[in-house]
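Final report, Chapter 2: Outcomes

The project's central promise was a pipeline that accepts a single protein chain and returns its three-dimensional structure in a standardized token representation, suitable for archiving and comparison. That pipeline is now operational. To close this chapter, we reproduce one record exactly as it appears in the project archive, with the input sequence first and the structure output second.
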Amino acid sequence: MPADNTQYQQVFSHLQAFPAGAEIFARCRFENCRFPGARLDKLTFEDCVFCGCDLSLARVQGTAFKEVLFEECKMQGLPLYSCARWLLAVRFKNCVMRFVSFANLPLKNTVFENCDLREASFSHTLLQKAVFSRCDLTRASFVRAHLEQADFTTSVGLALDPQANYLRGARFSVYSLPGLLAKYGIETE
């Protein structure tokens, strides 16, 4: 992820639309930009930071997020499941991500720090089941995340601390129990 001392190629502030003709954004910082419902299909973001932006309900079909940090962003209802899976590497800090779908994404090593993920889905739908693999949460980190009513029923590799997150009403499969109990040194068979 971009470090705090990263020299950005460009800084975009208070945008409401992306520059026409631009398809690749490398080492860019987006500050307080408003893109609710925007079409971001097939854009590439590499080593970028989104800070204080609104991406709620934006379209991200085939969009590539490579080493991207989202900080204090509003991303409600974002269909992340449709983004490009190749080299996906994201981090979320202090974001509002209610109703976001992460279905079938490879989210290995992804950090969700102090995020509102209420009613988010980390599971696939019946239609997606035949086409894609499961959401891979291997070494993903959930820290002070609001996961109330989130769906993890078909995700794999999940390990999170139930005492360090808010889980009321979250749904897990029986196969997730080892990841929920790992903190306590309990083994399941």
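Archive annotation: The beta strands are 10-13, 24-26, 28-31, 44-51, 64-71, 89-93, 111-113, 141-143.
This record, like all others produced under the grant, will remain available to the consortium after the project formally closes.
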